[in-house]
Amino acid sequence: MAGKITALDLGQGELSEATKTYFAKCEEKLGLVPNVLKAYAFDDKKLRAFTDMYNDLMLGESGLSKLDREMIAVAVSSINHCYYCLAAHGAAVRQLSGDPALGEMMVMNFRAADLSSRQTAMLEFAVKLTQEPAKIVEADRAGLRKAGFTDRDIWDIASTSAFFNMSNRVAAAIDMRPNDEYHAMAR
Question: How far apart are CA 63 and CA 27, in angstroms?
Fold first, then answer.
């Protein structure tokens, strides 16, 4: 299956100039076009919706650091056993933290990592939201506030968790495979 993007062959639609430019920017900044983007390339409108939401959540203004958001992606994806996201976002955690061991611990079990109490509270909330969303109660939000998060931060934690739960499910459904390059990044 190496080199294959997904088990589904949806073809590739006509890419807009904006998408071609976006792919070129990915190639320039990352050295690759992530397979998740190629998987969405069959429909420019779906691709744009995905990238707009991703870029807003992961790169937009937030009280959460970029590393915090990548750690949420990994913790959620670890619960969901999402091969694509664990490879891609595990690499991002390694890169952003400068700690290859942290990236590996996050993929396997974030509780084994030496995290701050703030990070632990954030990830425990993301995991509970992933596993038992109906059991989120005010005490969970209060715990995040006690750890130093604002209500806007709680929104961002929840939105990032929800986005990766959705992405994990799509990746599982179509057998999306990570780019081979992710495995060697930041080691």
Answer: 28
